[in-house]
Amino acid sequence: MKPRFVMAIDQGTTSTRAILFDHGGQLVAVSQLEHHQYFPKPGWLEHDPAEIWRNVEKVARRVLADVGARAEDIAAVGIANQRETIVLWDRRTGKPVRRAIVWQDTRTDALVDELQHAPGAGQITELTGLPLSSYFSAPKVRWMLEETPGLRERAERGEVLFGTMESWLIWNLTGGVHVTDVTNASRTLLMNIRSLKWDPQLLEFFGIPEAILPQIRSSLETYGTGRGVLEGVPIAAALGDQQAALFGQTCFAAGEGKCTYGTGSFLLLNTGTELVASTHGLLTTVAYQVAGQPAHYALEGSIAITGSLVQWFRDGLGLIGSAAEIETLARTVEDNGGCYIVPAFYGLFAPHWRPEARGIIAGLTSYITKGHLARAVLESTGWQTREVLDAMNADSSLRLRALKVDGGMTSDNLLMQFVADVLDVPVVRPMVAETVSLGAGYAAGLAVGYWSDLEGLRRNWHLAAQWQPAMDPARREAEYRNWTYAVELTLDWTSKTGAQ
Amino acid sequence: MPGSIQSIERAAAILELLAAAPVPLRVSEIGSAVQLPRATAHGILRTMLDVGWIEQDRVSGKYLIGEGRFAPGGRQVDPNELRARSMNWADPLAARSGEAVRVAVPEGPAARVIHYVFRPDHSTQKADVGALLPGHASALGKVLLAFRPSAGQALTDQALTPYTSRTLTTRSRLTSELAQVRRQGWAVEQGERQMDLAALAAPLTGLGGLVVGAVGIHGAVDRICDPNGVPRPRLLALVQECSRAIGRELHTPRTQA
Ligand SMILES: Nc1ncnc2c1ncn2[C@@H]1O[C@H](COP(=O)(O)OP(=O)(O)OP(=O)(O)O)[C@@H](O)[C@H]1O
């Protein structure tokens, strides 16, 4: 009997899901479980890797039960995971040495400040495509090795293994295969972005023993076969979540890009097999790699505050009862009334990188109502996308012909129209909203021949909605200028006022 | 004769209390006024909050009477909220049925389209979000009229515009059709607005059983119905499944969205 489905495991920051897709790329069943968020100190965030692994087993079992399927019905399993989060575990017992340090955790800020002044810091971006920041894995690994008594010695003796979340899951799924996929490895600060190998200079810089590292493999290949609930099923793909979304949106070729609009937003542009080093504050990352083929790269621009500004409008200001009501409020007025909100809550990120900036509401007059503010909130997401896209255009000669979108904010028609208007490209939303899982499923299915080629997957991509640019160009430029002035007003706020 | 239902009596007492109170009240104040333990009062207040009878001040946590709830016609669901809650279910309906999907809310005797998902066939299509569909000549509209009887009261024979030879143009025919829709829980439109178009729709039921909108598919008559003009059972089942899924979504409290 031919396998009927592929399974995607989406191991996210708040929950773990198993999803089955059929041959047409349609979602057949989902099972989801949340896991605990541990906040041991301000700025710290941890997950229990053992709990996450148990949840993976549970959701896999449940999703199979939901459709009455067994392991034989599954052609392959693909993993999409929260990126940069680190797990260290004992090679012999398989027990985590302590809880995982999650990507958002800022405990290594001071360590990173120190490292900025260490010899070799200047080459990090050249070697990895990333800025030296506490967001990525290496400083977290260094912290764990230093702050856990006896751990460094054990690591050096080869008794301890390190991995990002997909490594931990593959190790457990297969019963001991220690590998990482190249997209996840590209977020560690330890992999050379050109050679796609662990770089001795980087290991030395961060003080990380080579013995703990997994083997770097492509994103689409069989790493091993499953045991237990997934007995005999090939574990055939792994991708970081944003890369998985890019793949699920079928952005396989250079010049194709997507933006995921959630709490924060992530714009990724496939730059093909050519690596584009950013001079405009973007990250260079691996998009995906098929076994035996050259890797595809991507430029990535992350926007810290988009959906979370809407949440602030709801919870902080109490002007709306639910996120979607912002559109209703915004439609009570014709335009922003000259008002702009720059949500630099924790400084400005890509492409500015100005940590000392703080947010602003500019252009306030007695004419401004909450409707205008609601517009300004939504427009800030549009302008921030425009800034990132402009940076991409400055870094690369590729031109986006349409922006594929996904995420919770895409239910907002006013916002999506505004994004199309200010980018001056069509914005398109696919019919399968679960692009992260779909990407992992596609990758796994391709790796084992469940789908034969990328073109077949493109035919599975269906348009659910589309927004065409309709703004008068003169108005667009005038509004963008105003936004840019507003951004300038936010700079240096903390350095001038001494505020935090 | 059934006896009186205690929790409704208690809710009514709380409602009267809050309606008369000049300022928002704390749980403890409400509890002692209606002589209920704090936990019981809290449970009733949560439910009243979820159905929108009362509101809670975000800062102080105190309770007040829900604004607009008792206006004629009842509180309508925010259309953008309804779209956000429908999106994850409307997409699979389009994918599985192979037809375009619309979600609509009532506006007088008509149906206002608030969400549209393209038919998955790579053709160029136009979404009519914002369009007003005639209540008597569209599947979505008939569902809304059937389950919100007051909306249709103004519809005289003169108001029943004939779009095609199949449009229901008399009050009596419309009334018996709406009764049928209520009985079966779905509506069909067959060439009543446009000769070659058919549509199926089912109600979206919010908290307390109030129909707040409708979801449906539309497409060529011969795809939606069999040669005898009977809606294809598979498509009908998909539309009903989607309406139930969105209904469940609407029953999770707003406070979590
Ligand atoms: N209609 C809307 N208009 C504007 N913003 C919205 C709307 N609906 C949701 N949002 C915002 O989108 C965000 C939720 O989107 P989503 O669920 O994709 O986010 P996420 O938490 O980042 O994703 P996930 O939980 O899947 O990792 C919230 O910040 C919310 O404020």
Automatic annotation (TrEMBL), chain A:
Instruction: Give the E.C. number(s).
Output: 2.7.1.30
Under the cellular component aspect of Gene Ontology, which terms does the record hold?
cytosol
**Top-level taxon:** Bacteria
> Per UniProt, where does glycerol bind?
83-84, 135, 241-242
Task: List, for all copies, the residue spans of the domain called Carbohydrate kinase FGGY N-terminal.
Answer: 6-248
Carbohydrate kinase FGGY C-terminal domain mapped to chain residues: 258-447
Q: Which Pfam families match?
A: FGGY_C, FGGY_N
Task: Say which enzyme class the record assigns.
Answer: transferase
**Cross-referenced InterPro entries:** ATPase_NBD, Carb_kinase_FGGY, Carb_kinase_FGGY_CS, FGGY_C, FGGY_N, Glycerol_kin
Q: Which PROSITE patterns match?
A: FGGY_KINASES_1, FGGY_KINASES_2
| One of the protein's GO biological processes | glycerol-3-phosphate metabolic process
The positions annotated for binding ATP are: 13-15, 263, 307, 311, 408
GO molecular function annotation: ATP binding; glycerol kinase activity
Provide the reaction this enzyme catalyses. glycerol + ATP = sn-glycerol 3-phosphate + ADP + H(+)
Per its Swiss-Prot or TrEMBL record, what regulates the activity? Inhibited by fructose 1,6-bisphosphate (FBP).
Q: What does this protein do?
A: Key enzyme in the regulation of glycerol uptake and metabolism. Catalyzes the phosphorylation of glycerol to yield sn-glycerol 3-phosphate.
Q: Which family does it belong to?
A: Belongs to the FGGY kinase family.
NCBIfam families recorded for this chain?
Answer: glycerol_kin, PRK00047.1
Under the heading PANTHER family, the entry gives:
GLYCEROL KINASE, SUGAR KINASE
Q: What is this protein called?
A: Glycerol kinase
Q: Give the originating organism.
A: Kineosporia babensis
Give the gene that encodes this protein.
glpK
UniProtKB/TrEMBL annotation, chain B:
Q: Does the keyword Cytoplasm apply?
A: no
SUPFAM superfamilies named among the record's database cross-references: GAF domain-like, Winged helix' DNA-binding domain
What keywords are assigned to this protein? DNA-binding, Glycerol metabolism, Transcription, Transcription regulation
- Listed GO molecular functions? DNA binding; DNA-binding transcription factor activity
Q: What's one Pfam family here?
A: IclR_C
Domain spans labelled IclR-ED = 68-252
Which GO BP annotation is one of this protein's? glycerol metabolic process
Q: Which domain of life is it from?
A: Bacteria
Domain named HTH iclR-type: residues: 5-67
Q: What does this protein do?
A: May be an activator protein for the gylABX operon.
Q: What is this protein called?
A: Glycerol operon regulatory protein
